[in-house]
Amino acid sequence: DVYSKLNNYDEAIGHYNKAIEIKPDYAEAYSNLGASFVNLHKYQEASETYKKTILLKPNYADTYSDFGLTLFELEQREKAIYYYRKSIRIRPGNREVHYNLGMALKEIGRYEEAITHYDLVDDRNSIALSLECLYLAKQYDKFNSRLKSVIAKNDKNIRVAAVSAFVANQLKREDPYPFCKNPLNFIHIGTLDNYTNDTDKFIDNIISEAEKEKLVWQPRKKATRHGFQTFSGIFKAGNTCSILESFIKNELDVYYSKFSKKDCIFIKYWPHEYKLEGWYVRLMQNGYQEAHIHPNGWISGVVYLKPIVGTNSNDGALELSLHGHNLPILNEKFPKTTHNAKKGDIIIFPSSVFHKTIPFKENSQRCVIAFDVVPR
Question: What is the share, in percent, of the chain residues with pLDDT greater than 70?
């Protein structure tokens, strides 16, 4: 549907409902309607829609998979597993369903079963998730053995780099993964003041353009809490956002020059050909972001448009560290740093660094542009 392709899911829902009115047994319309609800994070509505789809078309593997994903988001893990397995019975080779099944099994602590399904997927994320499962299961020898085989095949997996750095710190050993062993040493802070004579006006224009984009309230299970976020593509939102993209690219050149002598995979294979992906985030009162990484990037960063100011605490501050994904902490003394950003700050770091926003109680808004360098 053209509206779905344009991320206009509200319009798509209206069209699917009209199609169902005309043809009440139109299973594909129900399926697409459910997918639109999922894209709007309306999981309860999606659940009810998928139930109707299954009644109309009981042997449709994609519906069982989509229903499982919806139930997972509703935290009904066992039911999600049931429907994922039904989907796999119809279409055994669907790697996406095996991945989602692995995620559900991991969530309820069935780590060995989860690894079995991750291994059937065998992509960048699933390889890292298998390592996480071994660490969660306290199978440290198996973790080390599997990590060695991963290194031999791929030394540029961002999520593996993040997991390896944290586990090495927790187990008090040297990090064997060569991507970027001390990622917090590669943090850089620049400023828009170096690129414009009127930073306040420039930022006002960015916010004005960004606020005209489709802003989606982020659901409880996403990294962003109590806030809105646009889809990727913010640098096409207007002329000022396009200019911002050029400023960020200039700052990335500064970053590379600063660290170009460092001996690690992160610098050695620096992506000189890349796509810059960006999105706008507006956090509201009590908003925050959980610790996360951007595994599809190489370098990540954030431009501060409206930081939280005037408090004596770290409310709204950016914390960068080795810890994330709720991995068990054995040693509280892991590397981390907190930055209370100023308006116009540009913070750049390896995509393997976990980063989060500390919640803020002030009745205010925190607005940023987040971005990733994605190698071509």
Answer: 96
